Amino acid sequence: MTVVTTLPDRRLLLVHAHPDDESIGTGSTMAHYAASGAHVTLVTCTLGEEGEIHVPELAGLAAAEADQLGGYRLAELAHACAELGVTDHRFLGGAGRYRDSGMMGLPTNGHPRAFWGADLDEAAGHLLEILREVRPQVLITYDDNGFYGHPDHIQANRVAMRAVELAAAEGIAPAKVYWTAMPQSVLEAGMTHFEESSDNPFAGISDATDLPFCTPDKDIAARIDATEQHAAKEAAMRAHATQIPATSWLYSVAGNFGAEFMGVEYFTLAVGTKGPGSGPYGWESDLFAGLETAGSTDRGGTDRIPVSSAGQR
């Protein structure tokens, strides 16, 4: 049986490890494309059960106590998505299928449901079902080091890239896969700015290349200027109150750099052909650059997508 679904002609899918990752790393990009009429699908791999809790009265939700933090973060994520204008959100394999693994090397990595230990093809199969349904032209996830080395971020990359391989075998793979990144020049500018600050997020680091997420400018493929959505990103981050305290350096940086910090996000291109860009390195300003989608000129376009019964939710 085949079901035909009508979706906007531009479709973006993001694979993130925990609730709050989507807002911190790609919030402005998500809000930008949602506001432009693209279909934005967020896939979150775990409930974030092992996260720290920055709201004292909720300390009892911790994994070592009631172990109810994951359930609470469901509501935080729903609030954040609403702030970003994202209406299509899924948990990989369903809510609670995979558990937050905690930081690398901790005993929580060995939990029976830890995402870090998930069977790769099984997890990728869950994502493949969503790819069959949505047929995104563009997919975003982390690099193969998970941006900064968290096991769940690394696993999210592995699962996403395996699902893309499986989708390619069916002829339905995204045309482009991007990995989140931070240009070396941007990090160096931030280090200079905060050098004398008492709230220096770069304290103890003198060379930007020592940071695991530092990417040479020449390797950046896209710079998405979504400064018009910086307020939505900040509101989404504040929705994750258990994870991002009101005193976070993230908000301090936002206060200094404003829309530029909150609204501009960068990516490397892992799969696909880079589209037209500008500047010394030809950075794209649109993740759909070079793709033939009606959304490039007409925001009102839709695609009728045939979906096999295996791909239905």
TrEMBL record:
Segments for region (Disordered): 292-313
Cofactor entry: Zn(2+)
GO MF assignments: N-acetylglucosaminylinositol deacetylase activity; zinc ion binding
Cofactor stoichiometry and binding remark: Binds 1 zinc ion per subunit.
EC number: 3.5.1.103
Signal sequence bounds: none
EC top class, as a word: hydrolase
InterPro entries: GlcNAc_PI_deacetylase-related, LmbE-like_dom_sf, Mycothiol_biosynthesis_MshB
Binding site for Zn(2+): H18, D21, H153
Gene Ontology terms: biological process: mycothiol biosynthetic process
Keywords from the named record: Hydrolase, Metal-binding, Zinc
Reactions that this protein is recorded to catalyse: 1D-myo-inositol 2-acetamido-2-deoxy-alpha-D-glucopyranoside + H2O = 1D-myo-inositol 2-amino-2-deoxy-alpha-D-glucopyranoside + acetate
Matching SUPFAM superfamilies: LmbE-like
Function: Catalyzes the deacetylation of 1D-myo-inositol 2-acetamido-2-deoxy-alpha-D-glucopyranoside (GlcNAc-Ins) in the mycothiol biosynthesis pathway.
Record family assignment: Belongs to the MshB deacetylase family.
NCBIfam families per UniProt: mycothiol_MshB
Protein name: 1D-myo-inositol 2-acetamido-2-deoxy-alpha-D-glucopyranoside deacetylase
Species annotation: Micromonospora endophytica
Organismal lineage: Bacteria, Bacillati, Actinomycetota, Actinomycetes, Micromonosporales
Name of the gene encoding the protein in the UniProt record: mshB
